[in-house]
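Final report, Chapter 2: Outcomes

The project's central promise was a pipeline that accepts a single protein chain and returns its three-dimensional structure in a standardized token representation, suitable for archiving and comparison. That pipeline is now operational. To close this chapter, we reproduce one record exactly as it appears in the project archive, with the input sequence first and the structure output second.
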Amino acid sequence: MAKNGAKGGGRVGAVKGRSQFKAPNGNWVKRDTSTGKFMDQKTSSSKPFKGVTKE
């Protein structure tokens, strides 16, 4: 019979190489810290991305 693995096997700590800020339109925008390019914009919720450092 299959069993679930150990709990807590996900990410520990902040995501490296990324940061986020709140844009003037109210959405959270994720940015690559090494190149400065925008990666993603969160439009589904007003909450920030999980585990990404805020600028």
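Archive annotation: The chain has no helices and four strands.
This record, like all others produced under the grant, will remain available to the consortium after the project formally closes.
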